[in-house]
């Protein structure tokens, strides 16, 4: 009986304040779309890091003839210096960070450079003009600086290069997009809370006579407040469902349908990631609505 009464009151409240309820749903839809977009963008960034950082290498360029770096003042790297550098990587205090070391010979360096040269700049060079390059795979690419600090000052080392730098600008851009989406989401969620507060307050004031009668006949506070709280929760949940549908549509047809075909070598997020975020969006919508409703009923209407 109580459940039927509460459901009836919720329906009547939504019907009486349909415009305000629709506004709550739309504002919640926009705010949670930004929240979901921020979460999915961050998931994409992490996915790209997992896929690309695992493939990047740390390159140690050894001193070649004519190098001007201080470490190369004594001339090109010697076999003894190269062995000492390899010993640090394979047996030294950074050996547990190193997955593998590949020595790219001066001949291989020469072939790679000449093959990539379309301008003819390197047409007059010889393999003897280059030095070997050490290509290092790390168990954790984030530990690059530790390896760099351990090797950069060794005799025979010209420079240490981390291939992750190639992706830093892209990841910075994506992280900035995440922050922007999160800020916009915060503003819109604040707007949604204020709108829910106003909606519930107007609804409660319009039914003040009914609530007074219920209080006089002994109805509990929770029974009186439940319809108002559920009104906000239902409207906010509707907005969350719209946000989930919008995010799914964008990922399904823009990411999976277009980007995957246009740039197939990138590991993109999928519709499954949207479904992973969906429960949290619904939970956020319901939680915000219930908290805003409870605050309003307790502070303003004294229900």
Describe this structure in words.
With 303 residues, the protein is an alpha+beta fold. The chain has 2 domains: 2-52 and 168-301, no CATH class; 57-163, 2-Layer Sandwich (Alpha-Beta Plaits). The protein is 68% helix and 8% strand. The protein contains 9 helices and 4 strands; from the N terminus they run H-H-E-H-E-H-E-H-E-H-H-H-H. The chain has helices at 2-16, 18-53, 79-91, 106-116, 144-151, 165-206, 208-216, 221-262, 271-301; strands spanning 58-62, 98-104, 133-138, 157-162. The chain has a 4-stranded antiparallel sheet with strand order 2-3-1-4. Helix 1 crosses helix 2, helix 2 (18-53) crosses helix 9 (271-301) and helix 8 packs antiparallel against helix 9 (271-301). The chain is elongated, with a radius of gyration of 31 Å.
Write the layout of secondary structure elements.
Blueprint: H1 2-16, H2 18-53, E1 58-62, H3 79-91, E2 98-104, H4 106-116, E3 133-138, H5 144-151, E4 157-162, H6 165-206, H7 208-216, H8 221-262, H9 271-301
Antiparallel strand pairs: 1-3, 1-4, 2-3
Helix pairs in contact: 1-2, 1-8, 2-6, 2-8, 2-9, 6-8, 6-9, 8-9
Spatial ordering of strands, largest sheet: 2-3-1-4
First-residue to last-residue Cα separation: 21 Å
- Please give the share of residues in helix: 55-70%
Largest sheet: 4 strands, antiparallel
- Tally of separate helices: 9
Structural class: alpha+beta
Question: How many domain units?
Answer: 2
The H/E string reads HHEHEHEHEHHHH
Report the count of strand segments: 4
Q: In terms of per-residue confidence, which ranges show pLDDT below 50 for 5 or more consecutive residues?
A: none
The general outline is: elongated
- Which strand-content bin applies to the residues? 5-15%
Mean pLDDT: 78
The radius of gyration over CA amounts to: 31 Å
